[in-house]
Amino acid sequence: MPADGYPALNNPHFHVITGASGAGKSTLLNALAERGCSVVPEAALAIVQEQERCGGDLLPATNLQAFMEEVLARNLAAYDAARALPPPVFFDRGIPECLGHMELLGLEIRPGQRAEASRRRYASTVLVAQPWPEIYARDRWRRAEFERATRSFEPTVAAYTASGYGTRVLPQVSVEERVAFVLRQLEAAG
Question: If I label 125, which of 18, 29, 62, 65 is the partner at 20 to 30 A Cα–Cα?
């Protein structure tokens, strides 16, 4: 039972794919979706894209605290909404790393936010995409050079291990081979 006294809502059918920016997570998730798996997109990128479309200022550069609170709120809501999806459900990033980055950035995390987060757990092993310079590409939303983009990798993984998750590194192979690897991991756990 979490420290807040509420039972965790563990879900062995909820799988997080996380890791380095530009390491093939979205491509892998799209391939899993094409094979009929349920996929929940990354909240932070969705917010940035929405704000750019509407000319809003809920962006990391203009209001980091409010932006991260919205990322957390959407991750919590996405977790709850995903209960209605057929398993397995794959999440592009998850709640622990949102809290971990908020801590790392020195942002306020209210006790209620921690309590809400602690009640929502994913499968015990998180799949991790390591930095992969051969496929890293800058685009409209991924503007940093590879070396700068990899700085968040260790804190991202550390947020999950600090929350009691194990990690499994995704091999740096073709998309089809990655999909097969992921599906084998689910069979082995299942």
Answer: 65
